[in-house]
Design a protein that fits this description.
single chain, mainly alpha, 2 domains, elongated, membrane, transmembrane
Length: 360
């Protein structure tokens, strides 16, 4: 009884300062405000699944870049020569992947709009041609790397024979110049052989005027004179049928032309003729597209690459001379019909052998 009286007395004193209504209203406000505060607190502490994945991926990418940077610095400090090869290899993979994506985009556009290869702009045509050539060269590496543990042998072969097995993306700048010189030396060896075959067929030409023009042209080239455009175009009829049409050429003549075009000469003559006609047709289509674009629109590297494809060793020639030579080539090529492409094929030798500035 005494304890209950004390409690009621204290409650009476406290109730004089805070009314019961105010007491219950305050408790209700606190309860409601607690509920209102609970939602934002949970939204901050518990992120959505998409946000969690995004933050995790950002963290992984940041850590990967940091580890990759440390790894590069370690290689550059302790293994400098290997680091150079590693850097070139990784950049080569990136460039090859970019080329593949661009080639796929071009092929997709061709399929959607029903566009043929010869209807493409020059740069897209050239990109597809070069990418096909690169993929063909990489095909051998892909085949020999199929067996288990053969990838170690592949890396060894790539290191020992970079010119034969690797494409230009994986060459150092010095290797690019040296390898292009080596390839041009290979095709230049066949030039005198091709000129001698032309001289041998002169008696087989029925027209006396054509015989004289071809004799004069061969003599000029053998004496070191660069032929004029009209000297070459005067022989259009001679190269459109017997004896200098592609289908009428002798087997040894076809093999020599294959070496001049950097194609293997160890295949049967019918297959070599097919490859020569295909390569010459592609170049002729490129020439028409380039004539529409204009040589002035090409960069210096594009000009040198175009000249090298057509038989000129442009690695040691100035840009202005390359543009002049390419203009002469286009003037001849755009004047020829499809039945006269044998002259364009021989033009790889006729127009490039004695051009000023080339290395002998």
């Amino acid at each position: 009884m005494a304890l209950s009286r004390v409690c009621w007395a204290r409650l009476a004193v406290w109730g004089s300062a805070v009314t019961p209504g105010h007491f219950f209203t305050r408790r209700l406000q606190l309860g409601r405000s607690g509920l209102a505060w609970g939602a934002p607190r949970s939204s901050k502490l518990h992120l959505s699944p998409k946000a969690d994945v995004k933050n995790l991926m950002s963290y992984v990418v940041t850590k990967t870049k940091a580890i990759n940077g440390k790894y590069h610095r370690f290689l550059g400090r302790h293994f400098p020569r290997f680091y150079v090869l590693y850097t070139i290899f990784m950049k080569g993979l990136q460039m090859l992947w970019a080329d593949a994506k661009k080639a796929r985009r071009i092929k997709t556009n061709m399929w959607k709009h029903n566009i043929k290869f010869h209807q493409l702009p020059y740069r897209e045509m050239e990109h597809l041609r070069q990418f096909r050539q690169d993929v063909t060269k990489c095909l051998f590496l892909g085949i020999i790397s199929i067996p288990p543990f053969a990838n170690y042998l592949v890396f060894l072969l790539m290191y020992l024979f970079p010119r034969q097995l690797l494409i230009r993306h994986f060459w150092t700048p010095k290797q690019q110049t040296d390898f292009l010189d080596i390839y041009h030396a290979f095709r230049k060896r066949s030039h005198p052989e091709i000129i001698s075959y032309l001289e041998k067929v002169i008696p087989l030409i029925s027209d006396a005027g054509l015989r004289w023009h071809l004799t004069d042209l061969c003599t000029k080239i053998q004496r070191g004179t660069h032929p004029a455009i009209h000297d070459i175009l005067a022989l259009r009829e001679c190269f459109s049928n017997h004896p200098l049409g592609v289908n009428q050429l002798q087997a040894l003549h076809v093999k020599a032309l294959s070496r001049a075009m950097l194609l293997t000469s160890y295949l049967p003559p019918p297959l070599l003729r097919h490859r020569l006609k295909t390569r010459t047709t592609v170049i002729h289509q490129l020439d028409k597209a380039l004539a529409k674009l204009g040589i002035g629109q090409l960069t210096a590297q594009e000009v040198k690459s175009a000249c090298y494809l057509r038989g000129l060793n442009s690695t040691h020639i100035g840009e202005d001379r390359c543009r002049t030579w390419l203009g002469e080539w286009l003037q001849i090529s755009c004047s020829l019909k499809e039945t006269e492409l044998s002259l364009l094929l021989h033009n790889v030798v006729l127009l490039s052998t004695n051009y000023l500035g080339t290395r002998r």
